[in-house]
Amino acid sequence: MFDERIALKIRLDQLADAEVRVMQEFKKEREVIFSRLQELDSVDEPDARSVATITTIGLPPRARRGRRSESLTELRKTAVVVLKEQNTPIRGIELQRFVEERTGKKIANMTTFMNGLERENERVRKLGRGLYMYEYDM
């Protein structure tokens, strides 16, 4: 009598055999690719150098649009100070309240303000919906 247990064991054996065959094919193909790369490296050494000199590295830095007001700089510095004081993530609305109390200035759009701060300071991170944190270990 042929039951499900025997069928599953047979299928496992088939999968193991197929896995071994596929791994052997990958190994053969990898060896072919490595040997071809070695051939190309030995033949085309000067061409590789010329390509490297032509290749550009990275994108040019984007020019800043407009100029930033001093009040925005003060708000951002205060926000970083508040984030450094907190050991745990802080909600954006709480951060906004602290910054506005300390500076006496209003933040019109907190999301835009924090997006700019994240671009300016790589240690300021948004963890989730409205949670921000200052990362010390980077």
TrEMBL record:
Residues 76-132 form the Repressor Rok winged helix domain. Pfam families: Rok_N, WHD_Rok. Coiled coil: none annotated. InterPro entries: Rok_N_oligomerisation (IPR058971), WH_Rok (IPR056984). Residues 1-41 form the Rok N-terminal oligomerisation domain. This is Competence protein ComK. It comes from Domibacillus aminovorans.
